[in-house]
Amino acid sequence: MSHEKKELDELDKVNAALSSSEQFIQQYQKPILLGLLAIVIIVSAIIGVRHFYVLPRENKAQAEMYKGVFYFEKDSFQLALQGNGADFIGFKAIADEYSSTKAGNLAAAYSGLSLYNLGKYDEAITYLKNFDADEEFISPAIIGTIGDCYVNMDKYEEGVGYFERAAKKADNDMLSPIYLKKAATVYEKLGNKKKALEMYQKIKDSYPKSMSNQDIEKYIVRDEEAGK
Questions:
Q1: What is the C-alpha end-to-end distance of the chain, expressed in Å?
Q2: Minimal CA–CA distance to 105: which of 73, 85, 134?
Q3: Fold of 133-228
């Protein structure tokens, strides 16, 4: 009997809880439904923005890129940059208009490289700095080109730092020695033989398999002699 009473008490508690929940839902049914509807709308909006806005913009930007790459590879940097006035708007316009897309990001890199080749170093730096990528070869090359821009404007202190950053970012036998050698050359230009020697020594110690390592010893000996 005691056991049956206990079970009835438990059922009463469950029923009371259910009843309380029903009352709560009935009382706040409208706010709850509105809240759920808002969540559905937000999620749908995110999906919709991506499907109907982001992806079409990405596809359109990518379609715009092909003609520009053709001009760039033909060294027609002005056409690549500004467009042909007909069926290609130019890398600058793509980079500015589609900045939120991957193609727009890549167009910023092409804009910077085109401007560099046209000798417009200040403007090139702006676009190159807007490019965002962690790819093993592209990112160091862009960083290194920023260094080249500064050096070509005789801003050696700014440029040498980018060469060192490019070497560190690449961290491979192909690219790192190139940028370390550029950094060494700039340090020599600045009269800092100690730092130049440090760059050459780093090539020798860190990248023994690189092509640059074959003649690196002569630079080390030369700067060691100069430092005596």
A1: 106
A2: 134
A3: 1.25.40
Q: How many CB atoms lie within 10 A of CB 103?
A: 19
Closest listed residue to residue 112, CA positions, set 84, 139, 74, 85? 139
The pLDDT of residue 137 is 67
Q: Compute how many other C-beta atoms are within 10 angstroms of the C-beta atom of residue 168.
A: 13
Q: Give the alpha-carbon dihedral of 156, 154, 193, 200, to 10 degrees.
A: 70
Could you identify the residue written with the tokens 């690449």?
170
- The model's pLDDT over 167-226, given as tens digits with 9 standing for 90+, comes to 999 999 988 999 999 999 999 999 999 999 999 999 999 998 887 767 788 877 786 666
Q: Which residue has the tokens 């080749």?
A: 117
Considering the entire predicted model, what is its pTM? 0.72
Between residues 121 and 223, the one the model is more confident about: 121
Contact 92, 81 (CB under 8 A): yes
The torsion region of residue 102 among left (phi > 0), alpha (psi -120 to 50) and beta comes to alpha
User: Could you give the 3-state DSSP secondary structure of residue 123?
Assistant: helix
Q: What share of the chain is helix, strand, coil (3-state, %, to 5)?
A: 80, 0, 20
Nearest Cα neighbor of 65 from 94, 28, 98, 23 is 94
Least confident stretch, 126-130, 136-140, 154-158, 176-180: 136-140
Length of the chain: 228
